[in-house]
Amino acid sequence: MPTPHTLIDTTDFAAAVTTLRHAKRIAVLTGAGVSAESGIPTFRDRLTGLWARYQPEYLVSIAAFEREPDVVLRWHNWWREQIADKQPNAAHHALAQWQQQAQAAGKTLTLMSQNVDSLHEAAGADVVKLHGTLAHEQCQNCGMVFEPSHIARMHLAPPATCPHCGGRLRPAIVWFGEMLPPEAWQRAERACQRCDVLVSIGTSSVVYPAAGLIDIAKHHGATVIEINPTPTQTPAVDIVLAGKAGEVLPLLVNALD
Ligand code: NAD
Ligand code: ZN
Protein backbone atom coordinates (compact mmCIF):
# COMPACT_ATOMS: atom_id res chain seq x y z
CA MET A 1 0.00 0.00 0.00
CA PRO A 2 1.47 3.43 -0.89
CA THR A 3 2.34 5.59 2.07
CA PRO A 4 0.87 9.10 2.05
CA HIS A 5 3.45 11.87 1.72
CA THR A 6 1.39 14.13 3.95
CA LEU A 7 1.40 14.07 7.72
CA ILE A 8 -1.63 11.79 7.92
CA ASP A 9 -1.29 8.79 10.16
CA THR A 10 -0.47 5.66 8.12
CA THR A 11 -2.59 3.46 10.41
CA ASP A 12 -5.62 5.67 9.80
CA PHE A 13 -4.90 5.69 6.06
CA ALA A 14 -4.71 1.87 6.02
CA ALA A 15 -7.96 1.65 8.02
CA ALA A 16 -9.69 3.95 5.54
CA VAL A 17 -8.45 1.90 2.57
CA THR A 18 -9.62 -1.39 4.12
CA THR A 19 -13.03 0.05 5.01
CA LEU A 20 -13.54 1.55 1.54
CA ARG A 21 -12.41 -1.62 -0.24
CA HIS A 22 -15.15 -3.56 1.53
CA ALA A 23 -17.83 -0.93 0.93
CA LYS A 24 -20.44 -1.44 -1.76
CA ARG A 25 -22.25 1.83 -1.24
CA ILE A 26 -20.23 4.95 -0.61
CA ALA A 27 -21.52 8.43 0.11
CA VAL A 28 -19.21 11.45 -0.14
CA LEU A 29 -20.11 14.85 1.30
CA THR A 30 -17.94 17.81 0.27
CA GLY A 31 -17.74 21.41 1.46
CA ALA A 32 -15.84 24.58 0.66
CA GLY A 33 -12.50 23.02 1.75
CA VAL A 34 -12.45 20.77 -1.31
CA SER A 35 -12.16 23.89 -3.50
CA ALA A 36 -9.62 25.69 -1.29
CA GLU A 37 -6.70 24.34 -3.34
CA SER A 38 -8.35 25.76 -6.48
CA GLY A 39 -7.90 29.20 -4.89
CA ILE A 40 -11.52 29.67 -3.75
CA PRO A 41 -11.59 30.81 -0.12
CA THR A 42 -13.78 28.94 2.35
CA PHE A 43 -16.11 30.97 4.53
CA ARG A 44 -14.47 30.06 7.81
CA ASP A 45 -10.73 29.88 7.22
CA ARG A 46 -9.70 32.78 9.42
CA LEU A 47 -6.97 34.46 7.38
CA THR A 48 -8.16 33.80 3.87
CA GLY A 49 -11.89 33.28 4.47
CA LEU A 50 -14.37 35.55 2.72
CA TRP A 51 -16.26 35.99 5.97
CA ALA A 52 -13.36 37.83 7.59
CA ARG A 53 -13.92 40.83 5.31
CA TYR A 54 -17.49 40.56 4.06
CA GLN A 55 -19.51 38.74 6.71
CA PRO A 56 -21.09 36.30 4.23
CA GLU A 57 -23.29 34.90 7.03
CA TYR A 58 -25.32 38.02 6.44
CA LEU A 59 -24.88 38.35 2.66
CA VAL A 60 -25.89 34.75 1.92
CA SER A 61 -29.17 35.01 3.78
CA ILE A 62 -32.69 35.53 2.55
CA ALA A 63 -33.09 38.17 5.26
CA ALA A 64 -30.32 40.30 3.69
CA PHE A 65 -31.81 39.87 0.20
CA GLU A 66 -35.17 41.09 1.42
CA ARG A 67 -33.58 44.08 3.16
CA GLU A 68 -30.81 45.06 0.68
CA PRO A 69 -31.27 43.14 -2.58
CA ASP A 70 -28.83 45.31 -4.58
CA VAL A 71 -25.99 44.84 -2.07
CA VAL A 72 -26.58 41.10 -1.96
CA LEU A 73 -26.69 40.75 -5.75
CA ARG A 74 -23.55 42.90 -6.18
CA TRP A 75 -21.69 40.78 -3.67
CA HIS A 76 -22.76 37.56 -5.42
CA ASN A 77 -21.57 38.95 -8.75
CA TRP A 78 -18.22 39.72 -7.11
CA TRP A 79 -18.12 36.15 -5.72
CA ARG A 80 -18.91 34.80 -9.18
CA GLU A 81 -15.99 36.78 -10.60
CA GLN A 82 -13.66 35.26 -8.00
CA ILE A 83 -14.78 31.78 -9.04
CA ALA A 84 -15.01 32.32 -12.82
CA ASP A 85 -11.41 31.49 -13.71
CA LYS A 86 -10.88 28.73 -11.12
CA GLN A 87 -10.23 25.16 -12.20
CA PRO A 88 -10.91 21.80 -10.58
CA ASN A 89 -7.97 20.65 -8.43
CA ALA A 90 -6.54 17.19 -7.71
CA ALA A 91 -9.34 16.48 -5.21
CA HIS A 92 -12.13 17.14 -7.75
CA HIS A 93 -10.35 15.00 -10.34
CA ALA A 94 -9.73 12.16 -7.87
CA LEU A 95 -13.40 12.14 -6.83
CA ALA A 96 -14.59 12.01 -10.46
CA GLN A 97 -12.15 9.16 -11.16
CA TRP A 98 -13.26 7.32 -8.01
CA GLN A 99 -16.91 7.62 -9.02
CA GLN A 100 -16.14 6.02 -12.39
CA GLN A 101 -13.99 3.31 -10.78
CA ALA A 102 -16.77 2.49 -8.33
CA GLN A 103 -19.38 2.28 -11.07
CA ALA A 104 -17.14 -0.01 -13.15
CA ALA A 105 -16.78 -2.28 -10.11
CA GLY A 106 -20.56 -2.48 -9.60
CA LYS A 107 -20.52 -0.17 -6.59
CA THR A 108 -22.24 3.14 -6.07
CA LEU A 109 -20.59 6.39 -5.06
CA THR A 110 -23.04 9.20 -4.41
CA LEU A 111 -21.24 12.53 -4.40
CA MET A 112 -23.11 15.23 -2.49
CA SER A 113 -21.73 18.77 -2.36
CA GLN A 114 -22.51 21.94 -0.47
CA ASN A 115 -20.38 23.87 -2.95
CA VAL A 116 -21.88 26.24 -5.47
CA ASP A 117 -18.80 26.61 -7.70
CA SER A 118 -19.61 23.75 -10.14
CA LEU A 119 -16.02 22.42 -9.99
CA HIS A 120 -17.12 18.82 -9.34
CA GLU A 121 -19.13 18.89 -12.57
CA ALA A 122 -16.21 20.53 -14.39
CA ALA A 123 -14.07 17.54 -13.36
CA GLY A 124 -16.70 15.18 -14.81
CA ALA A 125 -18.45 13.99 -11.66
CA ASP A 126 -22.16 13.40 -11.18
CA VAL A 127 -23.03 15.48 -8.13
CA VAL A 128 -26.03 16.04 -5.90
CA LYS A 129 -26.05 19.82 -5.54
CA LEU A 130 -27.37 20.42 -2.04
CA HIS A 131 -26.98 24.21 -2.21
CA GLY A 132 -27.56 24.84 -5.92
CA THR A 133 -25.12 26.57 -8.25
CA LEU A 134 -23.86 30.11 -8.80
CA ALA A 135 -23.84 29.34 -12.51
CA HIS A 136 -27.60 29.77 -12.76
CA GLU A 137 -30.14 32.44 -11.98
CA GLN A 138 -33.52 31.75 -10.43
CA CYS A 139 -36.70 33.78 -10.20
CA GLN A 140 -37.38 34.72 -6.58
CA ASN A 141 -41.11 34.75 -7.35
CA CYS A 142 -41.93 31.74 -9.58
CA GLY A 143 -38.76 29.65 -9.06
CA MET A 144 -37.85 29.28 -12.74
CA VAL A 145 -34.15 28.67 -13.35
CA PHE A 146 -32.18 30.38 -16.13
CA GLU A 147 -28.67 30.04 -17.49
CA PRO A 148 -26.81 33.37 -17.72
CA SER A 149 -26.30 32.85 -21.46
CA HIS A 150 -30.09 32.69 -21.80
CA ILE A 151 -30.40 35.95 -19.91
CA ALA A 152 -27.74 37.57 -22.12
CA ARG A 153 -29.63 36.42 -25.22
CA MET A 154 -32.73 38.14 -23.91
CA HIS A 155 -30.66 41.34 -23.39
CA LEU A 156 -31.64 41.56 -19.76
CA ALA A 157 -29.19 43.69 -17.82
CA PRO A 158 -28.56 42.72 -14.20
CA PRO A 159 -30.39 42.91 -11.94
CA ALA A 160 -32.68 41.16 -14.39
CA THR A 161 -36.33 40.32 -13.97
CA CYS A 162 -38.07 37.08 -14.85
CA PRO A 163 -39.43 37.06 -18.42
CA HIS A 164 -42.38 34.94 -17.23
CA CYS A 165 -43.63 36.75 -14.15
CA GLY A 166 -41.51 39.88 -13.75
CA GLY A 167 -40.08 38.61 -10.44
CA ARG A 168 -36.54 39.45 -9.39
CA LEU A 169 -33.76 37.12 -10.56
CA ARG A 170 -31.14 35.97 -8.05
CA PRO A 171 -28.37 33.34 -7.93
CA ALA A 172 -29.80 29.80 -7.93
CA ILE A 173 -28.18 28.92 -4.61
CA VAL A 174 -29.60 28.12 -1.20
CA TRP A 175 -29.28 30.98 1.27
CA PHE A 176 -29.46 30.77 5.05
CA GLY A 177 -33.11 30.73 5.98
CA GLU A 178 -34.15 28.80 2.86
CA MET A 179 -35.02 25.16 2.26
CA LEU A 180 -32.76 22.81 0.33
CA PRO A 181 -34.05 21.66 -3.10
CA PRO A 182 -36.32 18.73 -2.10
CA GLU A 183 -35.12 16.42 -4.89
CA ALA A 184 -31.44 16.87 -4.04
CA TRP A 185 -32.14 16.44 -0.34
CA GLN A 186 -34.12 13.24 -0.89
CA ARG A 187 -31.38 11.75 -3.07
CA ALA A 188 -28.75 12.62 -0.47
CA GLU A 189 -30.81 11.35 2.45
CA ARG A 190 -31.48 8.04 0.69
CA ALA A 191 -27.78 7.59 -0.11
CA CYS A 192 -26.87 8.25 3.52
CA GLN A 193 -29.48 5.83 4.86
CA ARG A 194 -28.06 3.05 2.67
CA CYS A 195 -24.31 3.68 2.54
CA ASP A 196 -21.65 1.50 4.14
CA VAL A 197 -19.23 4.41 4.41
CA LEU A 198 -19.65 8.17 4.40
CA VAL A 199 -16.60 10.29 3.57
CA SER A 200 -16.84 13.91 4.71
CA ILE A 201 -14.34 16.18 2.97
CA GLY A 202 -13.52 19.85 3.57
CA THR A 203 -16.61 20.78 5.52
CA SER A 204 -16.77 22.29 8.98
CA SER A 205 -19.96 20.22 9.49
CA VAL A 206 -21.84 23.04 11.15
CA VAL A 207 -24.19 24.13 8.34
CA TYR A 208 -27.47 22.25 8.71
CA PRO A 209 -29.31 20.42 7.32
CA ALA A 210 -26.33 19.26 5.16
CA ALA A 211 -24.24 18.41 8.24
CA GLY A 212 -27.11 16.18 9.45
CA LEU A 213 -26.35 13.78 6.58
CA ILE A 214 -23.32 12.58 8.55
CA ASP A 215 -25.56 11.70 11.51
CA ILE A 216 -28.07 9.95 9.24
CA ALA A 217 -25.31 7.74 7.79
CA LYS A 218 -23.89 7.01 11.25
CA HIS A 219 -27.33 6.21 12.63
CA HIS A 220 -27.83 3.67 9.84
CA GLY A 221 -24.56 1.91 10.66
CA ALA A 222 -22.07 3.51 8.26
CA THR A 223 -18.42 4.12 9.06
CA VAL A 224 -17.59 7.83 8.85
CA ILE A 225 -14.25 9.02 7.45
CA GLU A 226 -13.23 12.68 7.55
CA ILE A 227 -10.61 14.34 5.32
CA ASN A 228 -9.68 17.77 6.66
CA PRO A 229 -6.33 19.39 7.55
CA THR A 230 -8.05 20.77 10.65
CA PRO A 231 -10.17 17.89 11.95
CA THR A 232 -13.59 19.04 13.11
CA GLN A 233 -13.97 16.78 16.19
CA THR A 234 -17.43 15.79 14.90
CA PRO A 235 -18.48 12.95 17.26
CA ALA A 236 -19.78 10.70 14.45
CA VAL A 237 -16.35 10.49 12.76
CA ASP A 238 -14.56 7.12 13.06
CA ILE A 239 -11.41 7.67 10.98
CA VAL A 240 -9.66 11.03 10.50
CA LEU A 241 -7.29 11.65 7.60
CA ALA A 242 -5.81 14.98 8.70
CA GLY A 243 -4.54 16.32 5.39
CA LYS A 244 -5.51 18.46 2.42
CA ALA A 245 -8.14 17.01 0.11
CA GLY A 246 -5.94 17.58 -2.96
CA GLU A 247 -3.15 15.53 -1.40
CA VAL A 248 -5.07 12.79 0.42
CA LEU A 249 -7.72 11.94 -2.19
CA PRO A 250 -5.41 11.03 -5.11
CA LEU A 251 -3.46 8.70 -2.79
CA LEU A 252 -6.63 7.17 -1.42
CA VAL A 253 -8.24 6.63 -4.81
CA ASN A 254 -5.04 5.11 -6.23
CA ALA A 255 -4.83 2.75 -3.26
CA LEU A 256 -8.38 1.55 -4.02
CA ASP A 257 -7.77 0.89 -7.73
P1 NAD B 1 -16.65 25.95 5.78
O1 NAD B 1 -16.02 27.18 5.24
O2 NAD B 1 -17.55 26.07 6.95
O3 NAD B 1 -15.51 24.92 6.20
C1 NAD B 1 -14.44 24.61 5.34
C2 NAD B 1 -13.70 23.41 5.90
O4 NAD B 1 -12.71 23.04 4.95
C3 NAD B 1 -12.96 23.70 7.23
O5 NAD B 1 -13.27 22.66 8.15
C4 NAD B 1 -11.48 23.65 6.82
O6 NAD B 1 -10.66 23.13 7.86
C5 NAD B 1 -11.52 22.72 5.63
N1 NAD B 1 -10.42 22.86 4.69
C6 NAD B 1 -9.70 23.96 4.39
N2 NAD B 1 -8.78 23.67 3.44
C7 NAD B 1 -8.94 22.36 3.12
C8 NAD B 1 -8.30 21.47 2.21
N3 NAD B 1 -7.29 21.88 1.42
N4 NAD B 1 -8.72 20.18 2.14
C9 NAD B 1 -9.74 19.75 2.94
N5 NAD B 1 -10.37 20.54 3.82
C10 NAD B 1 -9.99 21.84 3.91
O7 NAD B 1 -17.36 25.26 4.56
P2 NAD B 1 -18.69 24.40 4.47
O8 NAD B 1 -18.70 23.41 5.57
O9 NAD B 1 -18.76 23.95 3.09
O10 NAD B 1 -19.90 25.42 4.78
C11 NAD B 1 -19.95 26.74 4.30
C12 NAD B 1 -21.08 27.06 3.32
O11 NAD B 1 -20.56 28.01 2.40
C13 NAD B 1 -21.55 25.92 2.46
O12 NAD B 1 -22.91 26.07 2.26
C14 NAD B 1 -20.85 26.12 1.11
O13 NAD B 1 -21.69 25.81 0.04
C15 NAD B 1 -20.60 27.61 1.06
N6 NAD B 1 -19.33 27.94 0.37
C16 NAD B 1 -19.08 27.39 -0.86
C17 NAD B 1 -17.90 27.67 -1.51
C18 NAD B 1 -17.65 27.02 -2.86
O14 NAD B 1 -18.60 26.66 -3.55
N7 NAD B 1 -16.40 26.84 -3.24
C19 NAD B 1 -16.96 28.52 -0.93
C20 NAD B 1 -17.26 29.08 0.31
C21 NAD B 1 -18.46 28.77 0.95
ZN1 ZN C 1 -40.71 34.26 -12.46
Q: What's a concise summary of this model?
A:
The chain has 257 residues and is an alpha/beta fold. Helices cover 40% and strands 17% of the residues. The chain contains 11 helices and 9 strands.
What would you note in describing this structure?
The protein is an alpha/beta fold and 257 residues long. 40% of the residues lie in helices and 17% in strands. The chain contains 11 helices and 9 strands. A 6-stranded parallel sheet has the order 3-2-1-7-8-9, with helices on both faces. The protein has a 3-stranded antiparallel sheet with strand order 5-4-6. Strand 7, helix 10 and strand 8 form a beta-alpha-beta unit. Helix 6 runs parallel beside helix 11 and helix 9 runs parallel beside helix 10. The protein is elongated. It starts with 9 loop residues before the first helix and ends with a helix. The model has no long low-confidence stretch (mean pLDDT 90). Nicotinamide-adenine-dinucleotide (NAD) binds next to helix 11.
- Shape label: elongated
Ligands (ions, cofactors included): nicotinamide-adenine-dinucleotide, zinc ion
Main beta sheet, described? 6 strands, parallel
Helicity, as a percent range = 25-40%
- Largest beta sheet: strand ordering: 3-2-1-7-8-9
How many β-strand stretches?
9
The helix count comes to 11
Based on secondary structure, the structural category is alpha/beta
Task: Reconstruct the topology from this structure.
Elements: H1 10-22, E1 25-30, H2 50-54, H3 56-59, H4 62-67, H5 69-84, H6 90-104, E2 108-113, H7 119-122, E3 127-129, E4 132-139, E5 145-146, H8 148-153, E6 169-173, H9 182-194, E7 197-201, H10 212-219, E8 223-227, E9 239-241, H11 245-256
Parallel strand pairs: 1-2, 1-7, 2-3, 7-8, 8-9
Antiparallel strand pairs: 4-5, 4-6
Helix pairs in contact: 6-11, 9-10
Bound molecules: nicotinamide-adenine-dinucleotide and zinc ion.
Nicotinamide-adenine-dinucleotide binds at residues 31-33, 35-37, 40, 42-45, 114-117, 131, 202-204, 207, 227-230, 232, 244-246.
